[in-house]
Amino acid sequence: MEKGVKNMRLIIKNGNVVKGNAVQKEDVYVENGRIVKPEKSFGADRIIDASGLYVMRGLVDMHVHLREPGFEYKEDIASGTKAAVKGGFTAVCCMPNTKPAADNPAVITYIKARAAEADNCRVYPIGAITKAQKGGEITEMFALKRAGAIALSDDGYPVSDGNIMRLALEYAKTAEIPLICHEEDTAIAAGGVVNEGYNATIAGLRGISSVAESAMIARDVLLAESLNTRVHIAHVSTKSGLEIIRRAKKRRVAVTCETCPHYFCANDSLILSFDTNTKVNPPLRSEEDRLAVVEAIKDGTVDAIVTDHAPHHKNDKSVEYNYAANGISGLETAFALSYTFLVKNGGIDIITLVRLMSENPAKILGLDKDAEYADAADLTVVDLNKKYKISVKDFVSKGKNSPFDGLEVYGEVRYTIIGGKIKYEAKS
Ligand code: DOR
Ligand code: ZN
After folding, report:
1. Which CATH class, in words, describes the domain spanning 9-54+380-425?
2. Which of 2, 169, 317, 357 shows the smallest number of beta carbons within 10 Å?
3. What CATH number should be reported for the domain whose range is 58-377?
């Protein structure tokens, strides 16, 4: 992705640098795309005054939908990655539910080429587990990996057949590629559109039991355990699902999991507005589930925060609740929502938040062992004191579908730096 790298020398001065387990006031020197420790004078091309700002390793979002190829009217790789850098993300992993699905090396190669052209952030494509994501026939995992797939997932859809998942876990173990599981027992979900419970009843909308998620999590955790392999669980939203993962981790099962801001910032009372921007899969859950997600973030059960950025066109959402598309456009709000709810008002420290939004996802994907990524000066500079209202009108993503429009938050991304190059700079 580094096109025409100039030997740009950059100093980020006086920032609060989040590094390992500490926050230290120091200057960061960047040369040749890397962080350096200059011995003598350092003639900088650009000096960023980061007084009062926080400087952290660039955020990594291991779960986004960039919609290209096939659904460019919702988002494309250029617009999605522009939204990513505005949101402070230096790397994103895009899910394979495109048209055609990313179930073959050609689509992976295409995504990488388009990402290089867009030249915004690093893009690591995720290949499909099954052909056309239909859950029937396993993809050519080695070929997908060779083409550049960083992980495999049928996200958007579950792998309903337990034996196919068992085989997929075995093959993925041999291919040494992580599997990311979208956990949804569609028989239990039974065509529901919101979380099952009080609010669904009041709204008169069909509910999805939390067991639709947790039963499938249990299956995949047990499969991974029996095969002595690893598994990563996508967008966990339920107390019962988290409890299964917590217990499995205690038995040393190699399970990791992620959640999304909307599962710890919101609950299913939002559906009473009938705003289709609250429709997402898995659905916004009960307050009890939301509190369990916060607890699981605190005790380390949750490894990563991801956006599940799912941009949709206005026409896909401007229909009756039952017919609206699932998904929230999340790249431009994730950092501020996470900071506001978890750090400012939630008792988690900024170091832990950076671990959840950068370090851990990189580790799960093996990026920490990728020399190009590991040594790169990928940095996000934020103003944690900046208070503002989320406004979907300001989104650069094509997807304006957010239930958080108008919400007051803290934490503004000021600069996103990738490989030493400033890829995003806030206007004022
Ligand atoms: O809400 C969702 N939207 N959940 C998914 O699993 C898929 C995603 C999409 O692709 O729109
Ligand atoms: Zn999913």
Report:
1. mainly beta
2. 2
3. 3.20.20.140
